[in-house]
Records
---
Amino acid sequence: MNELDSPYIGQSQPQLGSAPARLLRWTGRFFYYACLVGLGVFGTYIILRGAGSTLSNFDQWHDLVAGLPIRSVSEWIANLGIGMHFVCGAVLVLAWPILLSSRIRARHRAVHRWTGRVYVTAGLLAGTGGLSFIFTRGAYVQSASIAFGIWGAVMMLSAAMAYVHARAKRFDLHRAWAIRLFAMVLGSWLFDLEIRAWKDLAGGIGFGKGDTSGPLDYAMLYLFFVPNLLVAEFFIRNKHRRLVQSGNAKWSAVVALAAVGLIFGYAIVAVTATHTGKYGKHLLQFISG
Ligand code: HEM
């Protein structure tokens, strides 16, 4: 079983007998499998779109893939950097289940070690590619360049620290940084899911119209990675504790997680499996030929 299969990440599985406790376990499973499928499809979308097999390739490296003349060093860096970013980003969203599997960690240590080396390298290169694009061309708005720059720095730090602590056999610290790294990788997907969910379910209140940015456009630049980091910290710091004790607290946790789960499930389907979805419009066209 995978660790993320449970709301008690990193602990031995408690004996959960009561109804809310069982529901909590099912909610944990739902989140795990939703990430498994959703991130798997996200990674497939990146590969297919980047390979030019869908409606349109990514704009960011248009000149390179279209074979147009690239006239400056900074444009070479931007195009090649973002290309490396797409390749390594796909590795990051596809390979995590191997690393988080406690079974593979225990029984196939070499697989865990080698996947870990590839993963850390992909984290550092995806961050380097993203940052090189930010420094040479800039993200779609300056505020996004700043937020993505911070996100990239945290992701690269997490990758480097996870590796350093694994080499030094400090496995508690290795685990903590690996969880932070996964939380940052999750952000790349949550960014699209949160925007879609807010537009559909809250009418997009706070988003700017046309080319203008509203307060939520700015907030969204941090809401896709800061909350994940806080949740990761909560799990890391409560490793040896039962997270919910009393019956009432368990029921509250079930209701809160079920509500988040419903929105999460809705957003995954809307983005991935509809013709108006950011990935869906590429993937459905690819499937229907
Ligand atoms: C961790 C996994 C990541 C994945 C899977 C990923 C994936 C992607 C994808 C698919 C795009 C194209 C988006 C689009 O045009 O719709 C993109 C763009 C971009 N990513 Fe990432 N990314 C990741 C992490 C990061 C990080 C940590 C940074 C920060 C350095 C970053 C910086 C950027 C930038 C600057 C762009 C271009 C944005 C623009 O054109 O305005 N990414 N990424």
---
Amino acid sequence: MHVLRCASCDLLLHKVPVAKGFSARCPDCGSRVVKNSTLSLSGELAIAIAAFILFFPAQLLPLVTIDLFGVPLSTSVTSGAVILLDSFPFVGALVIFSTAIAPFAYLLSILLANLALHFHHARSLYYVTYAMKFLRHWVMIDVFLVSLAVAGFKVTEIAELSVGSGLFSFVVLQVLIAVLLSRVSPKKYWDAFSDSSEDVKLSSGATEVDDTVISCKQCGLTQHSENHHCHRCGAKLEKRIYQSIQKTWASLIAATVFVFPANLYPISILLSNGKRFEDTIFSGVASLIKQGMYGIAIIIFTASIIVPVAKIVFLGYILICIQFKVDSGRAQRMKIYRFVQWIGKWSMMDLCVIAIMVSLIDRGNLLDFTPGPGAIAFGLVVVLTMIAAESLDSRLIWDKHEQR
Ligand SMILES: [Zn+2]
Ligand SMILES: [Zn+2]
């Protein structure tokens, strides 16, 4: 029989043909193991090229403009973050990376993957699909779009807001990137690179504990485990990510430490007529409630307080269950893990709001907005929890511990 291993839980599965437009899911963890997409690689390429063309007006033209005491001020995607580079280089660089560099590099990786496929160059395809896989978690156009709405509501208190010429391109760019993020996968490129006739066959008596076959984390090919490197893409074959538990604990503990300064130090400082108003995340939410902006208060509270803490608690819970070899509730823990991965980037929202506010509220001593030291700690929490989620090998959640 033809077999393949689920890349998320390592279950050994029979390979079955999948009709166009359908996908096959793993019966244990529910991950999609085979997808026969209706969108071809050339369709993805067309969308990537369209997104590439839109990328420049979306990034360079102003998204919104306000009239602050008679002076028009506008913000583009990175204008605020560029200002931040001076005083808060880490926060500025983080916003620029997630809203400009990562989306650009992600689109570029799709274009280059098509080129590598065209020239049938395995090494290049390895690097670009590696980049593609890493970058997809850092593309935060959607987060920036919601941040823009939040910042917009905040500034309508003090100034008239108008839509800039880049906003339309930016919204369409987000739609195209959302389509790409849901469709593009390294495995699809590798399957196009070499057909799956190289798949391993096992005798029909093989069970899921059979460890003579291993799946490549990079390209998804199931193969005999005596190879040290994948014979399709060349990636190192590991049964589990090397020291996954240790890496996840390390980033999680570091993130937990930074949660305290992130919440105790002011995250934003408003200078108004020479007076200094400092706000921590919590006091910022409280003052939004006082002003009657309940919706935004809930959004900020969720993204900045609930999400980071939930990520730490959930990942900690999964790690403890792995370490204490808890057998029940694996499917539920897998759902929690997916949720943590999905929700990860939304905690960047407050930093994006800060970057937007910095570029919009800039009238020197009259009215000025800067981040506080809490923003650095908060940025570290965001990065560390994302690294923690990525270093956890989901197959560990499914490892069976009973006596064999
Ligand atoms: Zn699975
Ligand atoms: Zn491979």
